[in-house]
Specification:
mainly alpha; 143 residues; flat
Length: 143
């Protein structure tokens, strides 16, 4: 099965390279870059990414690379929406980190039955490690 999947993935990547990236990434370059910056420099996302890397298996394209992509895109969307709503940077930045954490964890229980509900329950327990940050205190506790 893995051999077939690897060939399919390789072929899909060949097809994708023929097309330009979606307009979203060009139209909202500053938001995607800012999302990337938050993701790479914030201690909460750094800790959580390291944890998730040890938990997710590469399974039909739903491994760490996918989780990071979802987190970055979610962060960019949050930046765009917060700017349109006129929210202050501090408020917006905190929301970006929270949504990036959700993106990292969205497939954490993918192999479980009813994985969306199981994943949400798991994420709720896991994120209790960060209660201060999620309430506005920027200092996460360690794992």
């Amino acid at each position: 099965m893995q051999h077939i999947y690897a060939r399919m993935r390789q072929r899909a990547r060949q097809i994708v390279t023929r097309f330009p990236p979606p307009d979203f990434y060009q139209d909202h370059r500053s938001a995607t870059e800012l999302s990337q910056h938050h993701f790479e420099t914030h201690p909460v996302t750094a800790q959580l990414r390291a944890f998730v890397a040890g938990q997710l298996e590469e399974d039909l394209g739903h491994g760490l690379e996918h989780a990071v992509k979802v987190a970055l895109d979610a962060g960019a969307l949050m930046i765009i929406e917060n700017k349109l709503a006129g929210y202050a940077d501090n408020f917006s930045n905190r929301r970006v980190i929270v949504v990036q954490c959700a993106g990292l964890l969205h497939d954490i229980q993918r192999k479980q039955g009813n994985h969306a509900i199981q994943g949400a329950a798991y994420a709720k327990k896991l994120l209790k490690i960060y209660p201060g940050y999620l309430q506005g205190n920027p200092q996460p506790r360690s794992f």
